[in-house]
Amino acid sequence: MSARILQDTAIRYFLEVVRCGSISEAATRLNVTASAISRQISGLESALDTVLFERRSRGMEPSAAGELLAAYAFRNQLETERVHNEIQALNGLGRGEVRIACTAGFAVDLVPRAINQFRQQYPGISFQLDVVIAREVSRRLIEAEADIGLTFSQAPEPHLNVEYRLNAPIMAIMHREHPLADKHSLMLSQLSGYPLGLPSRNILMRTVLDAGFSRKGLPMNIAFTTSSIVALLAFAQAQDCIVFSTEPLVRSYLAANQMVAVPIKDRDMNSLNIELHTLAGRNLPRAVAVFMEQLKTLLTEEQ
Fold it and tell me: Where is the HTH lysR-type domain (predicted)?
């Protein structure tokens, strides 16, 4: 494959169409005409003698060849960024950027705390944190929009490495004045009669909770449902209500707001894992690699 082809403007246009799934949306983002993008992609297909997209009514989907080229081009883009950052940082971690994608729970306490600790030692490193749903974390890693991903355990993704895994039992979170707050541990049966604040149904923790209560035939007194962990915590702080989280994600928040996390003994509540992901086969920029090691250390200490 010609190196000149892979460095051409057409690759940049091609990757934007992969990201957007639409030539018109890619044109808007790149501030060029749709016809210019179409010409570049047609030229690229001609040069490579293959079809790169399947044209469908709902947009553009990469063909098998397109997916292969996109994976190669994304990695090439990341390697270029890494070399640039390494050159800038030859005298130490004076400059650099770390891009993190995570689901909502990690943004309450754990990730901001890790960033704060890191910047105390390396103040020249900047961070970008995007809070998204789990499948979007994977997409951003694969498409070079993030360096590190944090989610709860998901189905294996062939393009991603699990750099670290930590068992994260679900705990009952409540104000320290709640009648159950002084218990060393609880069963779901003890929680069933109290008002509960639950994550939305599209969130993995909700699936685990629903299954746990259902398996034991226990009713759920649902007082509040939301996709926001921050809203759940605020609700539990103000109301005589129990919500759920894994303790490492909210440790500092609980201490600052007179709340407690009580372990739940039911086996189902021990099934979640925190996972730290990176793109498979990628050479990480030094700032990213050093921050990731610190994040691993912090997670180990949380355990």
Answer: 11-63
